[in-house]
Protein: Signal peptidase complex subunit 2
Amino acid sequence: MASEAAPKVPVYSPNDLKSTTDDALVPYLSTLPQPYTFAQDHFKTNVRFLLGYSAVAIAGFTFYADRKLGWEATQSTWVFAAVASYFILNSLLTYWIWAVEASEVFRGKRKSGETISIRSSVKKHTPLYKLRIQYKSASNAVIEEKEIEAPFTVWFSKDGVFHPEPFRNWLAKEIGVLREAARETEKKTSGVASVVGVQGADSQSSKDTKKRK
Structure:
């Protein structure tokens, strides 16, 4: 059922395949069984939005000043300051995206303090999805750091339908903490689903119970 509801993407578009796969990370990592659940950290995304929207607001303001107040008004000091601020914000935004976020698609933290950072990329001229994972303890010591890759065909069908379970199986096989979470899920669900979050499984079970009533 999950695969039927999944959107189709162009199989010859690496960017679309990557985006769809990236989007599948959050629902998986945020529904793992406790204590393995990762709460997503939105700090870097919020900073990017703040820089971007501030630059757009300044651009809109200077455009309004030019259209409504005339050429003379745009020669004032505050307009020059606004234009300078726009270029500074755009430069900061570019730096933030390429140097700070650096292709990071997920950053999360467990209740026990461990954090995970996942960066994704697509290999040029090959249908390979590549992840760089860094898993740290609460004291910021690196527990696991590795790069993994696999072809998109592992979790995409020939017609471009995304299948989450093979993708999650791959992640659980390659990443230690997710492997432990998969084992815990398998125990709690009696082997029904080794990689699907227990919360989702419990929710579905509750729905099924209500239907039977």
Q: What stands out?
A: Residues 23 and 126 are 21 Å apart (CA to CA). Residues 42-103 form one domain. The radius of gyration is 22 Å.
